[in-house]
Backbone:
């Protein structure tokens, strides 16, 4: 199957792209890497009347440190971010998680912002944004707004982006996790969508911040205080597993997903605390 007929628009600037969204609204889709969108177009799961290609807009192709934030433009590919020389120094958790995003072929085309915009609960980059408490930069003709990760993803494949807005960048706090970071994932094979993914970074006063993906309709985060006993931590993780619920599909049952949470979370907490010593 092929996409339904549509108009292809290739703007030279972000301003022109935003103007295209203002004109077409809900009938338009932004194309950056296209690793998810092209499949959806071919299956006619979405049938936009206009496709706005931002992949060659120079102002959206930068990675820069802005104060205490790492800002990644909407046209930056996952491979480019992974190859960024300062990644391990300023974002050690993302350096651990990014190699699990798809395969090197898809990372060469897929964008960081595109993965977050798609909002798949099994994806590693939405989990990274939630764990690190990053933010999404949205632009429309009426202005720019910043949404926290907890505000942006509202459900499975659902976000708070308005029809006339495009993501121009995502921002991750710099240096978070430099005292300890860990990532684990269970999938049918490396690069496939995660059945369950778990990430953790060291927080203040010996605490650990944990995020779980692939179980609920969006990544879930909790804090584990340093003062918790082993028994209390086990109870906290057990409550988390049940609160997430999980779901059955062809890859795994909800029960199996909950059991993976129970097993993986203590492992990465131990890894983070070992790094922090």
Residues:
């Amino acid at each position: 199957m092929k996409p339904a007929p549509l108009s292809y628009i290739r703007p030279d600037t972000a301003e022109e792209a935003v103007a295209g969204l203002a004109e077409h609204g809900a009938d338009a889709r932004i194309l950056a890497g296209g690793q998810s969108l092209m499949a959806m177009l071919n299956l006619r799961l979405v049938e936009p009347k206009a496709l706005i290609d931002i992949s060659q807009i120079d102002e959206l192709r930068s990675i820069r440190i802005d104060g205490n934030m790492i800002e990644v433009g909407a046209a930056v590919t996952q491979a480019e971010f992974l190859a960024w020389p300062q990644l391990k120094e300023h974002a050690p958790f993302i350096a651990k998680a990014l190699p699990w995003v798809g395969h090197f072929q898809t990372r060469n085309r897929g964008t960081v912002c595109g993965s977050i915009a798609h909002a798949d609960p099994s994806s590693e980059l939405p989990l990274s944004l939630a764990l690190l408490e990053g933010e999404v930069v949205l632009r429309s003709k009426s202005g720019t707004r910043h949404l926290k990760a907890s505000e942006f993803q509202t459900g499975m494949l659902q976000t708070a982006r308005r029809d006339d807005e495009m993501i121009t960048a995502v921002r991750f706090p710099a240096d978070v996790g430099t005292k300890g970071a860990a990532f684990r994932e269970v999938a049918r094979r490396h690069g496939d969508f995660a059945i369950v993914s778990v990430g953790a970074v060291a927080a203040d006063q010996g605490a650990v911040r944990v995020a779980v993906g692939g179980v609920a309709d969006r990544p879930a985060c909790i804090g584990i205080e340093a003062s918790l006993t082993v028994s209390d931590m086990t109870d906290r993780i057990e409550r988390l597993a049940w609160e997430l619920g999980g779901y059955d599909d062809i890859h795994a049952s909800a029960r199996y997903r909950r059991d993976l949470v129970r097993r993986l979370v203590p492992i990465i907490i131990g890894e983070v605390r070992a790094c922090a010593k």
